[in-house]
Design a protein that fits this description.
- Keywords: Cobalamin biosynthesis, Oxidoreductase.
- It comes from Acidiphilium acidophilum (Thiobacillus acidophilus).
- GO terms for molecular function: precorrin-6A reductase activity.
- The chain is an alpha/beta fold.
- The protein has two domains: 7-106 and 230-254, Rossmann fold, CATH 3.40.50.720; 116-226, 3-Layer(aba) Sandwich (Rossmann fold).
- Helix content is 29%, strand content 21%.
- It contains seven helices and twelve strands.
- The chain has helices at 16-25, 58-68, 83-96, 122-128, 184-193, 211-218, 240-254, and strands spanning 7-12, 31-37, 51-53, 73-76, 100-103, 116-119, 135-139, 155-160, 173-177, 198-202, 223-226, 236-237.
- The chain is elongated, with a radius of gyration of 20 Å.
- The mean pLDDT is 92.
Length: 259
């Protein structure tokens, strides 16, 4: 780690926590931060710090970036389902001896009135919808639709930030492009208007998209919940505030006395 009065920080983004962290450290002279997006969302909301869009070329490419840009600290604030990026971050940090922290927001937990079926994969979810044609609300993003093409007997209401690749969309589908946060009453109205029988979603744990679960609960609709993928061991916090505390301690430890 360089003995500079500021830390060179790389944030791996793609979550609301990444954007929040970037906004909160932007005016702080202790950090020179860059926020990196994978590029899957076409028009990401850019915070007031330098940003880059695109991959690194795996763990080795990320390690090279950390070295070439004299990165002092790496924060993985990617989506809970971005397991490959998290694994690459762990590997690259180990190669370069770069301090690494993951912001891992808490997962959603069912309550007594919920009717959840928790499954490990999209293929299992598609099969679990069952043999009887149903009206299914898919809120799984645009990358994971292909398994549902194998169950074309159902009608799918698909919501994502960007339009999905047409080759991934099941044949009987209605598309909605929208970005959260979503309101519970609006979600309930949507479910009723499309006569939804069942909801399929990832356990993202985000407050901005939790209203659909409350709406499904109020309508006694079943939910197929895709569990988070396993990730390598890494130092974790649940909140941006905790990440800021980690950064502050790292800065204090790296700054020589009198600087």
């Amino acid at each position: 780690m360089t003995p500079n009065p500021h830390l060179n920080l790389l944030i791996l983004g793609g979550s609301s926590e990444a954007s929040d962290l970037a906004r909160r450290i932007a005016p702080d002279p202790r950090y020179a931060a860059t926020l990196s997006f994978a590029g899957r969302t076409r028009n990401p909301i850019l915070p007031p710090i330098p940003c880059r869009i695109g991959g690194f070329g795996g763990a080795i490419g990320l390690a090279a970036y950390l070295r070439d840009h004299a990165i002092d600290a790496l924060i993985d604030a990617t989506h809970p389902f971005a397991a490959r990026i998290t694994a690459n971050a762990v590997h690259a940090a180990a190669i370069t001896a770069t301090p690494l922290l993951r912001i891992d927001r808490p997962a959603w937990q069912p309550v007594a009135a919920d009717h959840w079926m928790e499954l490990p994969t999209m293929a299992a979810a598609a099969a679990a919808i069952g043999p009887t044609p149903r009206r299914v609300f898919l809120t799984i993003g645009q990358q994971d639709l292909a398994p549902f093409r194998a169950t074309p007997r159902h009608h799918y209401l698909i919501r994502s930030i960007d339009p999905p690749d047409p080759d991934l969309i099941p044949p009987d589908a209605t598309l909605i492009t929208a970005r959260g946060p979503f309101d519970e009453e609006a979600e309930r109205t949507l479910l009723r208007a499309h006569q939804i029988d069942i909801l399929v979603t990832k356990n993202a744990g985000a407050a901005a998209t939790e209203a659909k679960l409350a709406a499904a609960r109020s309508l006694a609709l079943p939910v197929i919940m895709i569990a988070r993928p396993p990730t390598p061991p890494v130092d974790r916090v649940e909140t941006v505030t905790a990440a800021l505390d980690w950064l502050s301690r790292l800065h204090d430890a790296a700054t020589p006395r009198g600087v």
